[in-house]
Each structure stands twice: as C-alpha cells, then as structure tokens.
Amino acid sequence: MTLARVVKTQGRRGELAAEVHSDVPDRFAPGMKLSALMATRRELEIEDLWPHKGLLVFKFAGVDSISDAEKLIGAELQVPRAERASLEPGWTYVSDLVGCTLFDHGREVGRVDDVQFGAGEAPLLIVADEGKTFEIPFAEAYLERVDAARREVRMNLPEGMLEINAPMTEDEKREQQAARDRGKKREKK
Predict the structure, then answer these.
(1) How far apart are CA 30 and CA 25, in angstroms?
(2) Which residues contact 89 (CB under 8 A, 6 or more apart)?
(3) Tens digit of each residue's pLDDT, the chain (189 residues)
(4) Please, what are the domains in the chain?
C-alpha cells in the first residue's frame, strides 16, 4: 500500500522530499522499513524524517548522495497490507479504490483505474468505461459510501459533472477544428 510518493531530492546527503498519502498522524518513524516501488522494488529503512513546506523529507539508510537520491524520484513508498494502520469506521485507504466499480446516483459509470493526487484538495479517481475516461474528485461531499467487500464506490455527483469530464466525440472535435479554422481565416483578412 502506497503511503507517499517521492517528488524530488532535498539536500546534499541523499535526502528526499515526498508527498504523503496517509492521513494517519505519525505514520512514519525512524527505523521503519518501506519498499520503494519503481520499475523494480527496493527495500529502504528510514534513518530520519522531518516536515518541510508541505512535504515530508526522508533520509534513508544507504542513500547518501544526490545521485543516490535521484534514482528514487517518482518512487511510491509502500508498506505491506498486513502492516497498514487501522482506520476508523467509515475511512478507506485510497489505494483500495483502484479496481472498484464507481456508481453515480445508482448508475454504473466505470472502473477506477487509478487515483491521482495533487490536482486539488481531493484525490482524483480516474474512471474508465468503453474507451471513455472520467476524472472524478473523491470528495466527501459527493460520497455516498464505499463497499470494499463488493468493490463498489457509490457517489452522488453534481448534475453535469460526468458530461464536463467526458472525452469529446468525433463530431465535437470536428466542430472545434472548424471553429479554429474559421478564426484563422478571419485573422488573415
């Protein structure tokens, strides 16, 4: 399960800054072992950590230079499912949403393929169905419930949200191109 994602190096001694994807306070501690998931998996041990400008800076044992740290940029810092912190009732690990079917007002929208962070306050659920992709904020205001056992996310989205996020049809693309072409002809006159 992903707890954080490394975004950049921070310092000259191999420190790394990461965006944290856990709401559990004090989730990380010196001596804790994490896996860094990239193209391969690498085991790491936290030597030290501290907050800095909205990120968490990690110093890992054996990562002692900028060049060592650069190899870890983009890595997902994970713990095994068995070591996840217990959540309060009604809370869900965002990583558990991938693979769930999303419903809006009881109507199936598609399958959650990914969860993206950093686009706003709420993570974005990337939902795909029959060649269409939707970006839906996983916001408490829209959430009806998550049924982990049934692999379902039930939401009540604002009217029109799916249409705004829907990919353009071929007709809409042609209309948009025609409008651009008309605009270019007017500029030339």
Answers:
(1) 14
(2) none
(3) 678 899 999 999 999 999 988 776 678 999 998 988 887 889 999 999 999 999 999 999 999 999 999 999 999 898 866 676 677 777 777 767 888 999 999 999 999 988 877 666 778 888 988 888 888 998 889 999 998 889 999 999 998 888 766 555 677 667 777 777 776 666 665
(4) 2-80 (2.40.30.60), 94-167 (2.30.30.240)
E runs forming strands in the chain: 2-9, 16-20, 33-37, 41-52, 55-60, 76-78, 101-104, 107-116, 124-129, 132-137, 143-147, 152-155
Q: Which residue's entry shows tokens 């008309």?
A: 182
Q: Which of 4, 1, 3 lies closest to 74 in space, CA to CA? A: 4
Rounded to two decimals, the pTM is 0.54
